[in-house]
């Protein structure tokens, strides 16, 4: 518990046998974590076997590979079932350091924010950490366009290190989001649509051979998906379209 809040860390996992233990150990070192939920998307290695031998862990395995977005949907559903007050997503590939968990949880527990992102861009360490140049450039371009179309000022929309309050997750139409990687972009767009503040904290990252990453072709598909989300947001905002992702409410 942290400030009387139950902290649940969720880990979407796929073929993470070489990095799961390091990630888990560093999460456990952050003594505020009450439970870790690992959702495996039908790994072809020993990820599940390793996960089931860890303490303070609930393991869920999809019956078939559903995609990164679908994995997150399961993660958040299970975390809410466990009565989590604060849910923090940490990738099992050890690209993001779990040492920021207390800081991110504290920002939400303070009541000032309902969403906190671990940004690779804020501190200027993305390239130093090994982010490929093409990925860095596409990150900056997509972020600029998203900020312009959605009226926000985030340093990036594409980090996989995120913390949410229970109340925020329960208010989002996650079931209507994509089961693919663009889920990451859609959920942030939905939070901005609701007028909620998103905080960012500098997060050093390490790109290594075992870190999960989408290839160039899927990256292009993701990029177009992000652009589509931003344009849909704008069209809904000005009343030219309707979408289940951006429902009209008293807040908007």
What can you tell me about this protein's structure?
It is a single chain. The chain has 252 residues and is of the alpha/beta class. It has one domain (7-237): Spore Coat Polysaccharide Biosynthesis Protein SpsA, Chain A, CATH 3.90.550.10. The protein has eight helices and seven strands. It has a seven-stranded mixed β-sheet, sandwiched between helices. Strand 1, helix 1 (20-29) and strand 2 form a beta-alpha-beta unit. The longest helix is centred in the last third of the chain and has 22 residues, at 216-237. The two termini are 34 Å apart.
Q: Tell me the helix content.
A: 25-40%
Order of strands in the sheet with most strands: 3-2-1-4-6-5-7
Stated plainly, the CATH topology is called: Spore Coat Polysaccharide Biosynthesis Protein SpsA, Chain A
The number of distinct structural domains comes to 1
Overall CATH class:
Alpha Beta
In DSSP terms (H or I, runs of 4 or more residues), the helix count works out at 8
Largest sheet: 7 strands, mixed
List how many beta strands DSSP finds. 7
List unreliable stretches of 5+ residues: none
């Amino acid at each position: 518990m942290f400030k009387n809040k139950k902290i649940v860390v969720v880990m979407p996992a796929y073929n993470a046998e070489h990095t799961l233990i390091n990630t888990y150990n560093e999460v456990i070192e952050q003594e505020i974590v009450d439970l870790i939920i690992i959702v495996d998307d039908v790994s072809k290695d020993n990820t599940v076997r390793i996960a089931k031998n860890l303490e303070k862990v609930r393991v869920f395995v999809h019956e078939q590979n559903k995609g990164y977005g679908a994995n997150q949907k399961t993660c958040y559903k299970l975390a809410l079932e466990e009565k989590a007050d604060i849910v923090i997503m940490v990738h099992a590939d050890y690209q993001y350091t779990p040492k920021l968990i207390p800081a991110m949880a504290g920002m939400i527990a303070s009541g000032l924010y309902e969403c906190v992102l671990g940004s690779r861009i804020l501190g200027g360490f993305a390239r130093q950490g090994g982010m490929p140049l093409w990925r860095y450039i596409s990150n900056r371009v997509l972020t600029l366009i998203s900020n312009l179309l959605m009226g926000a000022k985030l340093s990036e929309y594409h980090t996989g290190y995120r913390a949410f309050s229970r109340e925020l997750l329960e208010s989002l139409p996650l079931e209507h989001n994509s089961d693919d990687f663009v889920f990451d972009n859609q959920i942030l767009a939905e939070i901005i649509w609701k007028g909620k503040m998103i905080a960012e904290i500098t997060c050093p990252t390490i790109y290594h051979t075992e870190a999960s990453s989408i290839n160039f072709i899927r990256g292009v598909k993701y990029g177009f998906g992000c652009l589509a989300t931003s344009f849909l947001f704008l069209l809904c905002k000005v009343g030219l379209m309707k979408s289940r992702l951006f429902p009209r409410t008293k807040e908007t």
